Amino acid sequence: MKLTEKSKKRIHLGFGILMSAMLVLVGILFITSCYSIYKSGQSPFTRESIARAFSKIAVWVYITVSLVIVGVGVSIALPTEGEKLKGARSLTVLVKKLSERVDLSGADGQTAEKIVKERKLRSILGYVRLTLITLSAVLPLIFLLNPANFPAVSGEYNAEILHGMLVYLAFLAPLFVYEVVYVILRDLSLKREHALLKEALASSGICETRESSHSCVICKAADYLKKNEKPIVLGVRIALVGCAVAFIVMGITNGGMADVLNKAIKICTECIGLG
What are the residue boundaries of the structural domains of the chain, listed by start? Predict the structure, then answer.
């Protein structure tokens, strides 16, 4: 039975949702295990305590790793038609190009008013975002750079580090939530303005798209890249993968991987309080 493209996409979507849920679950289990190890005693991070704690979540880790392997098999067995890259034709670029061709002074008054309103809305959203970014950067620094917030009583450095991380995450949480809201509202605003600009172009009798008549070298290069987008992107990806594999092999053969592993072990066990 041959699956339709729609069925394949549904399978990929369902598997992606399952994979995402498993990754979140494993992440929560890892964090919970680390915290339980930390709270278990004065020198809790020993091989025995780590093995005992993580053996409880080993099954979930193995299931997640198995799902990753199955996911690769699903991608190979059920390939879907890839969509064209839309970086150069994103909604922001489309709105900008259409805006250059629309004369708001000559457009319908109600349409022009709606377009201006959408642009003002995005400006307000941008200012709020900038304010939150500034506050999220400055306020945590004020707290973290104040020695009075870290008295280091009885050598509980790990507790102070955890406390500082929680405070920092508390300051970042509003920015994270707003970023999600900002992206959704901005995209909706761009879609509304795009529709309004198309309406204004149609009312003025101008076609929405037009072929470029430029014959400069840059324009020819841009046309060539656009026509040969897929092979160029594929070639770049293959080159990057080849470089990555080459560097990995070089690191393994010259002993660099072992050096990095030893340094990572020392940092985790000696520097940041896990040892």
Answer: 1-80, 91-210, 216-275
Distance CA 255, CA 259 (A): 7
pLDDT tens for 232-270 read 777 788 888 888 888 888 877 777 777 777 777 777 666
Q: Give 62-121 as a DSSP string.
A: HHHHHHHHHHHHHHHHS--PPPPP-STT-HHHHHHHHHHH--TTTS-HHHHHHHHHHHHH
How much is the pTM? 0.45
Report the C-alpha gap between 209 and 11 in whole angstroms.
36
pLDDT in tens, 180-203: 899 899 989 988 888 888 887 777
Residue 161 makes CB contacts below 8 A (sequence gap 6+) with 272, 273
Contact 189, 121 (CB under 8 A): yes
Q: Hey, what are 241's tokens? A: 């993968």
